[in-house]
Specification:
The protein has helices at residues 6-18, 21-28, 32-46, 61-87, 107-123, 138-143, 177-183, 207-216, 231-239, 249-258, 284-300; strands at residues 51-52, 58-59, 101-105, 128-132, 149-152, 161-176, 197-200, 224-227, 245-248, 261-263, 270-279. With 304 residues, it is an alpha/beta fold. Strands 3, 4, 5, 6, 9, 10 and 11 form a seven-stranded mixed sheet that branches. Strands 1-2 form a two-stranded antiparallel ribbon. Residues 4-60 form the HTH lysR-type domain. This is LysR family transcriptional regulator (Chromosome initiation inhibitor).
Amino acid sequence: MSTYDPAALECLAAIVEEGGFERAAQRLNVTQSAVSQRLRALEAQVGSVLIVRSRPLRPTSAGQLLLKHTKQMRLLRADLERDLQELAPSAPGATREDERISIAINADSIATWAMGALHELVGQRLPLEIIVDDQDFTQEWLRSGQVLGCVTTLKQALRGCKMVPLGAMRYVAVASRDFAARHLPHGLTPHNFREVSFLSFNRKDDMAAEFVARGFGLKRVALNHLFVPSTEGQMRAVAAGWAVGVVPELLARGPVADGSMIDLAPGHALPIQLYWHCWNLESVVLDALTAALTSTAAKTLTQP
């Protein structure tokens, strides 16, 4: 079996993670020419192209395999760092940029419970990178080997991975008091939802449509959308009276309780089941991440 140069592997990872050769060179503190040379040498050793020179750059199938291998090597080094810290607590931890441990989490989890779950690990100097995507798509980052774990709605474990249920994030439809009084004085109904706009993250976010369809027993709905790609931004947009927001109940409780926002469909909430997927490897870092996320989720999310 071939032995691959760790510097070349990290070069490949830097190109993919930074989205280009110039930024990869800056991160690795080498010239852009050196980045190209390392990639060419690795491609020659593998006998295959590893990067598709598109916009954005993306790894080929062979590149994805080597990228996953590189992430696994990082995980092993992170495990070693934690073991050494236990033996010599005063020793400095790893701070290298290329030692980052990457996971993918949906924005609503970041805005509600996930940051608290990860706080202690970050305090232990775990070099964490959180990649944000919709909960229906975070598993693609894991599938491609770009992260070692993800919070997702996918129930079935991916090949080579393990899955742990986290619980359900409940969503409610809210609007500012003034917006509700002007446009929805009787709340949201099957007859008036087309008359208002709903907030969404982007064009692949179907949360609002799913809320309306399930709440009113409709097969398909078409909504008017305003796109705000941030959980906190959506809460501010709702407060400012831009549109209706289908937001985590965890964030809506306070504003609804103080009367600044109105629950437009009292008694109805959309539960979205979340799961933690990660590589099925023996790793103290993975075990620590899994324990931290599942423990906090058990206290925060709705459990079956």
